[in-house]
Design brief:
By secondary structure, this protein is of the alpha/beta class. The chain is built from eight helices and eight strands; from the N terminus they run ααβαβαβββαβαβααβ. Strands 1, 2, 3, 4, 5, 6, 7 and 8 form an eight-stranded mixed sheet that branches. Helix 1 runs antiparallel to helix 2, helix 3 (171-184) runs parallel beside helix 7 (289-304) and helix 5 packs parallel to helix 6. The longest helix is centred in the N-terminal third of the chain and has 98 residues, at 52-149.
């Protein structure tokens, strides 16, 4: 039973007791009135009789009446005290009831708010689940469409430059390793690997137009001022600024999706070029021959197995660790702001090979 119900019962009981007290008081008042009438009647009789016996009788009646009136006054005064006390008790109980009802109302409001909040959370969960399901369905449709749009065969253009006045790099070993790992991959027939050597600045446009690549791979030297080192006609070094490289790639082919700068200090070039293409790989600092060869060959191997760009990049870094080459933090991957590396595929993965 709620405490407010207890107070209500108390009030009901006390009001019944109050009614009973008032009834008893009324009875005493009636008795008093009757005695007062007797006294009044006896007094009238005294004034109209000379009989001593009658006078004595009437005086006895008056005396008894006054005694009863006094007794009634005492009882009435006692009832008045009890009535006043009972009325105060009722007022106190009503105050307690009011306070308790306010507390219970507040508690009920809080519980109702909690219930509504809980319902709203459940509704929000359902809404989020439906939204996530809808988004997942939409993402799946987009993924299928993207996979359907992937070409049956991709072209990788490997461009190497090893000027005679620079430290000589084993670029042929890098190219051989990449080609070997592609031929060992599951979807080797989906990857065409084309090479260009001793590349000059004038060769870039020609090579891109000839091959129409999906992936462009630069192999050779880079400077710590974001320049790519190509060759002059006499075989000496010719530096090409980051801005020139980025602008060239941005305008030559709509098919290019990835540029791989396997050159020292090429992070800035990779970061800048993703404004125009989906993704780019660069090097945060200088990179050794062995690291460049191992990282690139395993990267293209993973691509050839139909893995995402993210997984291909991570597997290539893992290959450096497995080979004991402590340069796993040198390669960096950049992706266009609107994309995620885990969603980018260069070669169709197994589940989409026949869509």
């Amino acid at each position: 039973m709620a405490l407010s119900d207890t107070y209500k019962n108390n009030i009901k009981r006390k009001k019944s007791e109050l009614i009973k007290l008032k009834e008893d008081r009324a009875k005493e008042s009636a008795k008093k009135s009757a005695q007062q009438q007797k006294k009044l009647s006896a007094n009238k009789s005294l004034s109209s009789t000379k009989s001593q016996s009658t006078i004595k009788s009437k005086l006895d009646i008056i005396s008894k009446a006054e005694a009863e009136i006094s007794k009634a006054d005492t009882k009435i005064a006692d009832f008045d005290k009890k009535i006043a006390k009972k009325e105060k008790e009722i007022v106190d109980e009503e105050k307690k009831l009011h306070t308790e009802e306010e507390r219970e109302d507040k508690k009920a409001q809080n519980e109702e708010k909690k219930r509504l909040d809980s319902n709203n959370r459940e509704i929000q969960k359902i809404t989020n689940t439906l939204a996530n399901h809808s988004k997942a369905q939409s993402d799946l449709k987009k993924a299928i469409i993207n996979m359907q749009n992937l070409p049956e065969k991709i072209n990788v253009l490997f461009m190497a430059s090893n000027p005679i006045d620079q430290n000589q790099l084993r670029l042929d070993e890098e190219a051989r390793a990449i080609h070997e790992m592609i031929t060992k991959s599951k979807h080797r027939d989906s990857v065409n690997f084309a090479t260009r050597w001793a590349v000059r600045s004038s060769d870039i446009l020609q090579a891109i137009n000839e091959v129409n690549p999906d992936v462009i791979h630069f192999s050779g030297h880079g400077t710590n001022t974001d320049e790519l080192v190509l060759q002059n006609t006499d075989g000496s070094a010719k530096c090409i600024t980051k801005e020139v490289i980025v602008q060239t790639i941005a305008t030559v082919s709509d098919r290019v999706r990835l540029v791989f700068f396997n050159t020292c200090f090429s992070q800035g070039q990779a970061e800048a070029i993703v404004e125009y293409i989906e993704a780019a790989v660069g090097m945060a600092t200088s990179i050794g021959d062995d690291a460049a060869r191992v990282f690139a060959s395993y990267f293209y191997s993973a691509v050839g197995f139909g893995l995402s760009l993210e997984k291909s990049f991570l597997q290539a870094k893992a290959a450096l660790l497995l080979e004991g080459i402590p340069e796993e933090d040198t390669p960096v991957l950049y992706v266009k702001d609107t994309l995620q590396a885990k969603d980018i595929y260069i070669v169709r993965p197994d589940e989409y090979q026949h869509i």
